[in-house]
Amino acid sequence: xxxxxxxxxxxxxxxxxxxxxxxxxxxxxxxxxxxxxxxxxxxxxxxxxxxxxxxxxxxxxxxxxxxxxxxxxxxxxxxxxxxxxxxxxxxxxxxxxxxxxxxxxxxxxxxxxxxxxxxxxxxxxxxxxxxxxxxxxxxxxxxxxxxxxxxxxxxxxxxxxxxxxxxxxxxxxxxxxxxxxxxxxxxxxxxxxxxxxxxxxxxxxxxxxxxxxxxxxxxxxxxxxxxxxxxxxxxxxxxxxxxxxxxxxxxxxxxxxxxxxxxxxxxxxxxxxxxxxxxxxxxxxxxxxxxxxxxxxxxxxxxxxxxxxxxxxxxxxxxxxxxxxxxxxxxxxxxxxxxxxxxxxxxxxxxxxxxxxxxxxxxxxxxxxxxxxxxxxxxxxxxxxxxxxxxxxxxxxxxxxxxxxxxxxxxxxxxxxxxxxxxxxxxx
Amino acid sequence: xxxxxxxxxxxxxxxxxxxxxxxxxxxxxxxxxxxxxxxxxxxxxxxxxxxxxxxxxxxxxxxxxxxxxxxxxxxxxxxxxxxxxxxxxxxxxxxxxxxxxxxxxxxxxxxxxxxxxxxxxxxxxxxxxxxxxxxxxxxxxxxxxxxxxxxxxxxxxxxxxxxxxxxxxxx
Lengths: 428, 171
Fold this sequence. Notes:
The structure holds two protein chains of two kinds.
Chain A: H1 2-6, E1 8-10, E2 14-17, E3 22-26, H2 33-44, E4 49-53, E5 62-68, E6 71-77, E7 83-87, E8 102-104, E9 107-109, E10 116-118, E11 123-125, E12 149-153, E13 156-160, H3 168-172, H4 176-183, E14 190-192, E15 197-201, H5 205-212, H6 218-221, H7 223-231, E16 242-249, E17 252-258, H8 273-291, H9 293-301, E18 303-308, E19 312-316, E20 320-329, E21 332-342, H10 347-360, H11 368-381, E22 390-392, H12 408-422
Antiparallel strand pairs in A: 1-2, 2-3, 3-22, 4-13, 5-6, 5-8, 6-7, 9-10, 10-11, 12-13, 14-21, 15-21, 16-17, 17-18, 18-19, 19-20, 20-21
Helix pairs in contact in A: 8-9
Chain B: H1 3-9, H2 16-31, H3 35-39, E1 42-51, E2 66-71, H4 72-82, E3 95-109, E4 112-125, E5 128-143, E6 146-156
Parallel strand pairs in B: 1-6
Antiparallel strand pairs in B: 1-2, 3-4, 4-5, 5-6
């Protein structure tokens, strides 16, 4: 009802017609070079983008290098314990100062002419220093350049290339409630489990935004996964998938629902045996004591697919995945995915978590390859866009409370995307 | 009866040639999509592993996120799934070709042989040919009826799988 009353707008990209209950997205938004270039300026240069998790730089001098929205960055914890995001480029002539994916280092040295930077990013040595003027770098302009903004929420570090962006807390707004429901599963803190799934999809990045929170496609695209679950003795309990979709403003959205699979925090299935049940009962008891029974049940038993605008997916399902992705062109994206779990988790439960993760998630799992295929086939289908110019995401638009297999959450993404892409003040 | 099973039955050590024969057969079964027969090459407690490309030699699927970590049951389910039209990424089936090289017996302990080989796997679908490069670390259990695979760890010698997108086939 709220959605119906509030929606009534039209641009070159969307038709949002609440009165008729119709929502259309122009396929050119997935295809055109111009749109992609504008997205760089209006979305990726202005929104908060996920950089990494605190556990990846747990100790002083830990670093990770990462390519984000066309930039090459260093994410590190310096010798004094502060977390930083630097541009990975020597201020002398430009070469990378760090060429490893991860590690621990007190120094970053450019191999080209040998300039040396501390883990705080300060230029501390140059070969032939006496040949430079006395007050060289007195203003710090030859130190490693910092990314304009770096802030964190519940262990998740985000960067923003816009110095004037609102704070991360303001940006996340109400979706923080859902991030909390995931992070509160840990008694101590969450950690990224070793091993990165780094893959690619030949499709527009927004197709993966939609797909990551799409409850409608499960029974068709993932029929073989559901077959597998029902073949697995005791790894499934009777539970229909039901739940609700939420939009939070700012393009963030989520679905929350019950599902038949086991959850390492904390929904038992017979395959995990008495031992597993004991572990999960203890976790639920701890959660109930800390948060009350109602919230504990919500944390432990329900599943959440969360999209944090524009490109972070936090899916808390049979395991927890952090997934982020960047367009290289209108029809190709790089995807990075990690598994997240409570630091204090028993090794048996960690093993179950990772076993669960791989049966559904990731490019070698029983589901993700079929998603990839679907997205790539959509992208190919858009070659016909002159004849068929619009996508439809109207499902559930006239319902009082759209469900998880409706498309409210995608409309929330598109409304925000459209507002950023068509805003006058953003015109440059 | 293969030479390998004859040798096994006579308590003789298996040779590289025996394992080459075995691995060429395995490659052919995968390439020809005879996946039920491929499964028969494995022991009942077998595992099929593909670590993520930033995993180390010591990483196990109990402590690190892999691309694939199947026990024997899930290998069977993987095969069942790949045979269905609903395994969309592999329908219609892609064309797959395995190249197996540099086969070496690394150690023999009792009935267990550690064997390694290099591989190049080509997969063609929708007019795109992808190349997977890596090496396999096998643990073979050799019984009276010849060798069976107890563990196959397919280690990709790549920095990521961005150039191939996904691993929807058997490596």
